[in-house]
Design goal:
The complex is a heterodimer. Chain A is 80% helix and 0% strand. Chain A contains eight helices and no strands. Chain B is an all-alpha fold. Chain B has one domain: Orthogonal Bundle (MetI-like fold), CATH 1.10.3720.10. Chain B is 81% helix and 0% strand. Chain B contains eight helices and no strands. Classes of the chains: A mainly alpha, B mainly alpha. Chains A and B meet through α2, α3 and α8 of A and α2, α3, α6, α7 and α8 of B.
Chain lengths: 222, 213
C-alpha cells in the first residue's frame, strides 16, 4: 500500500461532507423515527380500533421485511405514485419509517411496564388522559425505554450504510468510490469498518453513561 | 404482474432461504466457539472472543460484506461470490449468536455442574450433556429472532451480485418498469418466510422441553 499524504489531504473535503451526510441522516432519522414511533404507540394504545389495527399491520409488515426492499419500494416505486424523492430525502424518510416501527414496539413495551396503579391513582385525583400521558407515563417510561432506544439508535447508525445502495452520498458510498478510483478498495473499506466500529462503541458508551446519570430518576422498580 | 414473474421470485426466495439457513448453521457453530472463548478463564481467549463480538456487531453488515468480498481475492483466495456472501453473513450472525449463547451459558445453575463434577463427568461431557443443552434451550427464542434478522439481512448480499430474492426483484423491476408490484411481491415473500420461521420456532420451543433445569 502506497501511503500518499497528498492524496488523503485532497480527499478531505469530500470525506468531511460524506461524514456530515452520515451523521445528518443518522440523527434526523433517529429523531424522526422516535417521534413517529411514539405517535404510533400512543395511537395504538389510546386510539380507536379502526386506527390501531391498520397501524399494527404496518408495524408487522415493516418489521418483517428487509430495509433494502422498503428503500427500493420508496425510491424506485415512489415516482410511479407521484412521490419522486432525491436520494437523501428518500433515505431519511425510509430510515424514519423503518425505525418508527421498532421504536413503536419499544414504547408499547414501555407503556405496558408502567404500573397500572400509578395510572389509576392519577385517574382518581382527576387528571385527564393528556395529563396522565404527559405527567405519569412519559417520565416513568423514559427510564424504562432508554436502553432499548440507545440500542435502536445504534442499529439505525449501521443501517445508514444501506442508504449507499440508493446513492445517498454518505461515507460508505463515497469511500467505496474513492477506494475503487485509487485501487485501494480493501484498505479504504477496512478504514471504513474501523470508523463505524469506533462510532458504534462510542455511542454504546455514551448510552450507558446516560443511563447511569439518569438512573437516579428511576422510581419504578421491577 | 404475471405469474411467470411471481414464479421467478418464488424460485429466488428458495435461494434466499438456502443462503440464510447455511449462514445461520455455520454461525451457530462459530458462535458457540466464540461464546465459549469469551467465557474462558484464559485472558487472551476471552479478549479475542469479545473483540470478535464487538467488531462484527459494530460494523454495518453491508461494509462487512463488501470487505470480505474484496478481501478474499486480494489475499489470493478465489472463491465464488456466494461463498464470500455466506462467509460474511455467518461471521455477523456468529457474533450475535455468541452474545445470546453467552447469556445461556451463564445461567446454567452452578449446582448442576458441581453435581456433574461429583459423579465424575469430564469437562467435555459436562459441556455436551449439561451446559450445551441448557444454553441452547435458553437461547432458542433469540435464535429464532436471529434467523429472522438474517433472512432480512440476506437481502444485502444482492450488492455482491448474488441473484437472491431482492436482486431478482430488482432485475425484474428494471426490465419491466414495475417496481411497485415487484418489490411488494418480494416483501410479501419475505413476510411469509418470516411468519413460517416464527411459527416453526414456537412449535419447536413447545416440543423442546428436555434439559429444563
Amino acid at each position: 500500500m502506497n501511503f500518499d499524504t497528498n492524496l488523503i489531504v485532497s480527499m478531505m473535503p469530500e470525506l468531511a461532507r460524506a461524514f456530515g451526510v452520515t451523521l445528518l441522516t443518522w440523527l434526523v432519522g433517529v429523531i424522526g423515527a422516535a417521534i413517529l414511533g411514539f405517535l404510533v404507540a400512543v395511537a395504538r394504545r389510546y386510539g380507536s380500533p379502526w386506527l390501531a389495527y391498520p397501524l399494527r399491520l404496518c408495524v408487522e409488515v415493516i418489521r418483517g421485511t428487509p430495509f433494502l426492499i422498503q428503500l427500493f419500494l420508496l425510491y424506485y416505486g415512489g415516482p410511479f405514485i407521484g412521490l419522486s424523492l432525491d436520494p437523501i430525502p428518500a433515505g431519511l424518510l425510509g430510515l424514519a419509517v423503518y425505525g418508527a416501527a421498532y421504536f413503536s414496539e419499544i414504547f408499547r413495551a414501555g407503556f405496558e411496564a408502567v404500573p397500572p396503579g400509578h395510572v389509576e391513582a392519577a385517574e382518581c385525583v382527576g387528571l385527564n388522559r393528556r395529563q396522565i400521558i404527559q405527567r405519569i407515563l412519559i417520565p416513568e417510561m423514559t427510564m424504562l425505554v432508554l436502553p432499548a432506544s440507545v440500542n435502536m439508535a445504534i442499529v439505525l447508525l449501521k443501517e445508514t450504510a444501506v442508504l449507499s445502495i440508493i446513492t445517498v452520498p454518505e461515507l460508505t458510498l463515497v469511500i467505496s468510490a474513492i477506494g475503487s478510483q485509487q485501487y485501494a478498495f480493501v484498505e479504504s473499506l477496512f478504514l471504513l469498518a474501523l470508523f463505524y466500529w469506533g462510532l458504534v462503541e462510542l455511542s454504546g458508551r455514551l448510552g450507558r453513561h446516560m443511563e447511569a446519570r439518569l438512573s437516579k430518576y428511576r422510581f419504578v422498580t421491577a | 404482474m404475471s405469474w411467470k414473474l411471481f414464479e421467478l421470485l418464488v424460485q429466488a426466495s428458495f435461494y434466499t432461504v438456502q443462503i440464510s439457513f447455511i449462514s445461520i448453521t455455520i454461525g451457530l457453530v462459530i458462535g458457540t466457539a466464540v461464546s465459549a472463548a469469551s467465557l474462558s478463564p484464559n485472558r487472551a481467549l476471552s479478549i479475542s472472543g469479545r473483540t470478535f463480538v464487538s467488531f462484527f456487531r459494530g460494523v454495518p453488515l453491508l461494509v462487512q460484506l463488501l470487505l470480505i468480498y474484496n478481501l478474499l481475492p486480494a489475499l489470493g483466495i478465489n472463491v465464488p461470490s456466494v461463498v464470500a456472501a455466506i462467509t460474511g453473513l455467518s461471521l455477523c450472525t456468529a457474533a450475535y449468536q455468541a452474545e445470546n449463547l453467552r447469556g445461556g451459558f451463564q445461567s446454567v445453575p452452578r449446582g448442576l455442574l458441581e453435581a456433574a463434577d461429583m459423579v465424575g463427568l469430564s469437562s467435555f461431557q459436562q459441556f455436551r450433556r449439561i451446559k450445551a443443552p441448557i444454553a441452547l434451550r435458553l437461547a432458542l427464542p433469540s435464535l429464532v429472532n436471529e434467523a429472522i434478522m438474517i433472512l432480512k439481512a440476506s437481502s444485502l448480499v444482492s450488492v455482491v451480485g448474488i441473484v437472491e430474492l431482492t436482486r431478482m426483484a430488482q432485475d425484474l423491476a428494471a426490465s419491466t418498469y414495475r417496481p411497485i408490484e415487484l418489490f411488494s411481491a418480494a416483501g410479501l415473500l419475505y413476510l411469509i418466510i418470516n411468519w413460517l420461521i416464527a411459527w416453526g420456532g414456537s412449535v419447536f420451543e413447545r416440543s423442546f422441553r428436555w434439559g429444563r433445569p
